[in-house]
Amino acid sequence: MELTTDPRAFQAQCMDMRGQGLETALVPTMGWLHDGHLSLIRWARDNARRVLVSVFVNPTQFDRADDLEAYPRDLERDAALAREAGADVLFAPEASELYAPDHATWVRVPDLEKHLCGASRPGHFQGVCTVVSKLFNLAMPTMAVFGDKDWQQLAIIRRMARDLDFPVRIVGRPIVREADGLAMSSRNVRLDPDHREQAPGIHEGLRMVRDKAAEGETGPEALREALKMFYAMRLPDGVVDYIEFVDPEAVTPVDRLLPRTLVAVAVAFGPVRLIDNMLVGTEVA
């Protein structure tokens, strides 16, 4: 595996791969790799000739300076894990290499960022879209692989790629969970022991909603109230940011459950904000 920090050198490598007709897969990450990231890299290894992994803690998608500062970083560790999982190139630029001092160009998909994390974190998806656009232009991948845990992000990137005619296939892969059900996240390491013990309740609550929906409850308000009560008991230290029932493609709220409805939640334990989601409905296996 080759490690590069220079965007121009990375772009030249990727142009050469594209020129050779090689199918390439990009796995964008912010580092502190866990098994969720590694599952994306392994999938890419099985489905492309060259695997490109980026590690970049993107400052423009953070809405709080303390959250950016506290985000875990260890490039040496990440490089070893990416190499073992099958990456061919690891791209790890400095922020100053991607954003000029007078950077003034931004990319947004406003219609899809009105709800969920977009409502709670103004400017977040503008930062995501802008950096992913940069990565697409540098890497020129055949496909880009993302996890379903950040469902709204995935929907926005799909729309962005379609609207801007990026020649890349966007691939979403299933959420990878800890043994106790907690969705894997780089932020999990920042949970204190008490909060880490409570955090699996996020997924337990989603399973409860899924079961109620399977039993015939189709009203989002009734399901939301049931989940609020569950979280109040199971997550005494958790602060619920949102519980939303949305169309999985449009990311807009629904007033009755669709055959495929996304239940998306965000819960904060102190400074650590965790998200999770689950599809429910009659067309969900």
Explain the overall architecture.
The protein has 285 residues and is an alpha/beta fold. It has two domains: 172 residues, HUPs (Rossmann fold); 90 residues, Pantoate--beta-alanine Ligase, Chain: A,domain 2 (2-Layer Sandwich), CATH 3.30.1300.10. It is 40% helix and 19% strand. It has eleven helices and nine strands. The chain has a six-stranded parallel sheet with strand order 1-4-3-2-5-6, with helices on both faces. Strand 2, helix 2 and strand 3 form a beta-alpha-beta unit. The longest helix has 16 residues. The mean pLDDT is 97.
Summary tags:
285 residues; alpha/beta; Rossmann fold; Pantoate--beta-alanine Ligase, Chain: A,domain 2; 2 domains; six-stranded parallel beta sheet; three-stranded antiparallel beta sheet; 11 helices; 40% helix; globular
Summarize the structure.
The chain has 285 residues and is α/β, with parallel strands linked by helices. Helix content is 40%, strand content 19%.
